[in-house]
Amino acid sequence: MDRRNLTPAGSWVHRMTFFWAATGATAGLSNFWTFPGLVAERGGSLFLFVYLVGLLLITLPLMLTEAAIGRYARFGPVLAFDRLAGDTDAPGRWLWVARLGVFSGFLVLAMFAVIGGICLYYLFHAALGEFNHATESSLLSTLDEFVRNPEASRAFMGWHAVFLLLVVAVSAQGVWQGLGRAMRVMVPLMVLLLSGLLIYSARDGEFARATSLMLDPHWADFSFESVRLALTHAFYTLGLGVGVLIVFGAYSAPTTPLKRSVFTVALSDTLIGIMAGLVVHSLVTASEVPGLSGFELVFLALPESLASVPGGQFLLTVFFMMVTLAAWTSALALMEPAIGWLQDRLAAPRRWTVLIIGVAAWLAGLMVLFSFNVWSDDMLLGGTAYRWMDIVSSAVLIPAVCILTSFFVGWALADEESLRLIGHGPALVRQIWLWVTRLVLPTVILYIAVHHAMASAASLCDGAPSLIWCGH
Q1: Per-residue b or e along 195-217, where b marks 16 or more CB atoms closer than 10 Å to that residue's CB
Q2: Which residues of the chain have pLDDT under 50?
Q3: Residue 111: inside a domain
Q4: What pLDDT shows up at residue 111?
Q5: Which residues constitute the domain of residue 233?
Q6: pLDDT of residue 9
Q7: Rounded CA separation 133/153 (Å)
Q8: Per the confidence metrics, is the pTM higher than 0.70?
Q9: How many CB atoms lie within 10 A of CB 174?
Q10: Residue 21 resides in a domain
């Protein structure tokens, strides 16, 4: 391989590795516990249509921009911005955009690892048959005992540590032998498990009901709020603003068709979300399932529905294995920008860098973990440590990084430099991308961020009604 295509950390040889890695980074837990409920509750295929429009307006242009920055510079986010700014005489302060992106990715990693520990715990419990004939009350007791009981926090810490050890063990093997090979194995395995559950759902589940909820237009449920939620999910679902796609663009093989790969990743993420929705709505029999999401859907409603069906133990094991793989691949991707940044700063071997980031993520994750139990009553302005980490990352840092990245590429760089980033193509398409990056992306993302920040601020009023914005 031409050494100009190598990053200091290494590169991928196979052109398909970028696709599998980016799919593993984007097809995360939201596909299984947020997307199905949103589609079913907010208009079915009408929601899906607006969501796809959001992908075209927001996700695809920004995904291409981030991946193209990495491909151009062949470095992680900070050095990629440094090289691009240096080559185009842009001010050096733009490097802070990349630094904020790496930091936001680290915060998301810390939160993600805690959820990954819960998924791993449920995988083992399902495999051992401990959910057989479980009831709603027993499942709620299991979840409360593991997550919210302060006396059981050591067990929670242990599963959290095991999950991060799995991530560190893979990442320490390197970009090619570790990250790339794992993504090429784990992501197809996750899709295979999901496909198997879909076949079972079509044969033995309430598939007609699921198809109606996910794919039929429900005008009575469709509103402007549906449009906002569709755009919001389109923005947050594909891991933008945390440096992952910049790193993966840097690692991509020189023969990788970047524009086609980015489009295929977004399409694959959508298809995985639709398949997950069909599976969930086929298997979960609770009447209120369209309104369920998150913990309630994955850790309560689904185990309850499968507790007494023939083969329920096997089905639950497959489901939680699939969810654990989704968390594992996402965590591997989220760790990579921080590893690259620290490796550049310290000039240390990759294994030591991975270990340092892994320990730091575990320590930061303890703040999240304790927010569910030991520190659940300790509030700062109405929010736990976990709540504030979530608000800072999702409502402030990630939107800010994405908006500033759009400004950097769209306005700080000369037109020819911006267009050179995305490579050759029809002139009209290139101009559309440039003006979408300049105007549409910042406007839509700012709207999403402001609304998300306002909703997050309002949610803090439950813990501190005396806050100035809560009213009295």
Answers
A1: eebbebbeeebbbeebbebbeee
A2: 1-6, 287, 289
A3: yes
A4: 93
A5: 3-380
A6: 52
A7: 26
A8: yes
A9: 16
A10: yes
